[in-house]
């Protein structure tokens, strides 16, 4: 039976279907932030991830990709353990940008989950970078009998990060 990294099996049967294409890799997850330098500091100095920065490609490149008229950005790529990358954008234009801070239950909300080796130390260090827990940090009791320490944390940009440690 298939299980996710928390040991939870999906409900219902998993069915493979015939299709005309296949996803061959996950490339990155992308987040828009208000302060790229502060967000880089969090991923680099708090979480210990490697960072690669890139300049605004200029011209209409970002407008053509995103469909956002006159889009101008600063970009950084975060290299996570396990090979996944996070692409961070700080939009410099257009000026009529909006801040969107959804609750975890709101459509379009997303989060990244990271397994840590010291839950309490991770909570304390993330607090230094402006991340606050959304609720009490619960112990989750899985059907398998395993216990996880887990917390959702959010910063001022609305980035949601879940940290998990096996108890």
The ordered string of helix (H) and strand (E) elements is EHEHEEEHEEEE
CATH class of the largest domain: Alpha Beta
DSSP strand count: 9
Q: What would you report as the Rg, rounded to the nearest angstrom?
A: 18 Å
Helix content: 10-25%
Count of DSSP H/I helices: 3
The global form is globular
Query: Whole-number average pLDDT?
Result: 90
How does this structure look, described?
This protein is of the alpha+beta class. The chain folds into 2 domains: 26-96, 2,3-Dihydroxybiphenyl 1,2-Dioxygenase, domain 1; 99-167, 2,3-Dihydroxybiphenyl 1,2-Dioxygenase, domain 1 (Roll). It is 16% helix and 30% strand. The protein contains 3 helices and 9 strands, in the order βαβαβββαββββ. The chain has helices spanning 36-46, 61-66, 119-128; strands at residues 29-32, 50-54, 72-79, 85-93, 112-115, 132-133, 139-141, 147-154, 160-166. The strands form 2 sheets. Strands 5, 6, 7, 8 and 9 form a 5-stranded mixed β-sheet that branches. The chain is globular.
Topology:
Blueprint: E1 29-32, H1 36-46, E2 50-54, H2 61-66, E3 72-79, E4 85-93, E5 112-115, H3 119-128, E6 132-133, E7 139-141, E8 147-154, E9 160-166
Parallel strand pairs: 1-4, 5-9
Antiparallel strand pairs: 2-3, 3-4, 6-8, 7-8, 8-9
């Amino acid at each position: 039976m298939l299980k996710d990294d928390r040991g939870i099996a999906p409900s219902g049967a998993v069915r493979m279907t015939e299709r005309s294409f296949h996803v061959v890799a996950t490339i990155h997850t992308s987040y828009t932030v208000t302060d790229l330098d502060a967000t880089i500091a969090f991923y680099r100095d708090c979480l210990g991830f490697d960072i690669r920065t890139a300049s605004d490609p200029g011209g209409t490149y970002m407008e053509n990709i995103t469909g956002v008229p006159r889009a101008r950005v600063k970009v950084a790529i975060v290299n996570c353990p396990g090979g996944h990358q996070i692409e961070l954008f700080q939009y410099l234009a257009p000026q009529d940008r909006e801040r969107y801070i959804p609750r975890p239950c709101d459509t379009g909300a997303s989060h990244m989950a990271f397994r840590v080796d010291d839950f309490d130390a991770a909570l304390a260090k993330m607090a230094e970078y402006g991340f606050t827990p959304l609720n009490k940090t619960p112990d989750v009791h899985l059907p398998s009998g395993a216990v996880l320490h887990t917390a959702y944390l959010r910063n001022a940009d609305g980035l949601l990060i879940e940290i998990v440690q096996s108890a």
